[in-house]
Amino acid sequence: MSKKLKALIIGPGNIGTDLLMKMQRSKWIEPVWMVGIDESSEGLKRARDMGIKTCATGVDGVLPHIEEDDIRIAFDATSAYVHAENSRKLNALGVIMIDLTPAAIGPFCVPPVNLQAHTQELALNVNMVTCGGQATIPMVAAVSQIQAVSYGEIIATVSSRSAGPGTRLNIDEFTRTTACAIESVGGAAQGKAIIVINPAEPPLIMRDTVHCLTESEPDQAAITQSVLDMIENVQQYVPGYRLKNGPVFDGNRVSIFLEVEGLGDFLPKYSGNLDIMTAAGLKTAETFALEAHAGNIQLPVRQSGVLT
Amino acid sequence: MNLSNKNVTLHDMSLRDGMHAKRHQISLDQMVSVASALDDAGMPMIEVTHGDGLGGASVNYGFPAHSDEEYLQAVIPKMKQARVSALLLPGIGTVDHLRMAKDCGVSSIRVATHCTEADVAEQHIGLSARLGMDTVGFLMMAHMISAEQLLEQAKLMVSYGANCIYCTDSAGYMLPDEVRKKISILRESLSTDIEVGFHGHHNMGMAIANSLEAIDAGASRIDGSVAGLGAGAGNTPLEILVAVLDRMQAIHNINLYKIMELSFNKSC
Question: pLDDT-derived band of residue A2, with 50, 70 and 90 as boundaries?
């Protein structure tokens, strides 16, 4: 039996396509299906050209093939509006759902902070927060692991070209979801998120600023080491994740300045914001596969299509 | 230029844009006293929030002396005729802040985006319009794009529900010719029930001249600030604009001597 877990991607847009390209290099995940809703879409055509089975009738169209193709992982790169239904249908067939939409019906997952906990309890739906959250919450956690953070604030700056219509239409989802995860995953008592969409040409690489206010005087040496260690953890799946400056200490304020360069798979390298989402999503799936292969978790048992 | 008998609605920024100059530290007493004096002078609209709008309180933009809610709740009950507006920048503030502002009695929401990014404002403009509020689309740094591109973004904001569009010279970079071109294209291309506004800054000392040009080209709302208190080099100084509008016999309903006195007292 192959150690790879078979996967499907819902949503053949920028994220879905970038994810597919990264997945084709994965040792642990094998892309099998790309699901869309428009037969003539560029995204489905690209997937077919890459040798992937496609379905243009939404998730319903692929349900009959889940068992025969032994699909274990699904990535939803559609919208918050349809995610809940997609997740319910696929979970019922024992497919683990990795949610790249702002729906957040499952627990937030930021791989270097809490992925291990989700794999151990075999969460059937995990949400990847937001691009800004993936880029910054590891840093908030790096500080809060050393000492209590009363307030965590992040400012994500992304190029105008890399902010798609979904992000723009739901910009409040970005600020709300990110702020919420700064608290629940990052460990800050209060979270605040700001997004700046910058139209400069040529497009800027994603930049992120993280400010943490610690309850007591920051232990500079311990926090600096924790931040550097966390940077390395993120770099394992996002090689272009870099500390540009900091941590800078000013009273109880700890400031960290980051840059996220993408791999340039489907979107140009400045789109680190999209890369860090797809890379984190794939890392999450790979960890499920690795744990299942090692026998640490038992994937849902399949009998006649419906789990009991 | 003949502005005789032209109607113009002036909008004071000193308690919002002026927050930048005061590092967001204006006290509640100062807010109420300035707003009351503006109200008494006949100022029809007054903006009150953090300098970066609702939800601006942050390490990045500065923590204010009081929350937006506290400022609004202190000022609004004291107003006899002035309407209070709040600024909202999508990406910083959310529709939750918008609802809070409405509950505090704010009747005008100004949704501000960079001049090329109007499509981040759909949620906020839409909700404000549905709540029946005066809803303004506020296109910032408007010097960076052509008049035609500005119009394209303005049309997006109108399609979301804005009843007024501002050409905002955030950096005080525009010269009168450019103001005329941009205000004219907005006025000529948007339907007549959509108001057009101009927000000037005084970096090149052109804010008064630019505001007059805007009124002549069809703008019916003009932003300014008593004593010019505002970000960077300051906003269009309102007491001077009022004096010039008096000389030109434009209609604005503001008492020149009262606003001069406020400006004098505030500067001391």
Answer: low
Interface test with B, best of A131, A171, A177 (most B CBs within 10 A): A171
Q: Is the separation of the CB atoms in B11 and B242 below 8 Å?
A: no
Q: Collapse the DSSP code of B112 into the 3-class scheme (helix H, G, I; strand E, B; otherwise coil) and give the result.
A: strand
Q: Both A69 and A141 in a single domain?
A: no
Distance between CA A187 and CA A149 in Å, rounded? 7
Asked, for residue A304, whether it belongs to a domain, the answer is: no
Length of chain B: 268
Q: Which of B58, B95, B119 sits opposite A172 (nearest CB)?
A: B95
B117 contacts A194? CB cut-off 8 A:
no
Cβ distance B91 to A165 less than 8 Å, yes or no, reads no
Q: How far apart are CA A100 and CA A103, in angstroms?
A: 8
Contact, A65 vs A6, CB < 8 A? Answer: no
Task: Count structural domains, chain A.
Answer: 2
The Cα–Cα gap between B169 and A293 comes to: 60
Alpha carbons A235 and B157: distance in angstroms, whole number: 40
What is the least distance, in Å, from the CA of B96 to any CA of chain A? 9
SS3 assignment, position A145:
coil
Mean confidence (pLDDT) of chain B: 97
For the entire predicted model, the pTM comes to: 0.92
Do A75 and A184 belong to one domain?
no
Segments forming the whole domain that contains residue A9: 5-128+276-293
Mean pLDDT in residue range B247-267: 91
| DSSP annotation of B31 | H
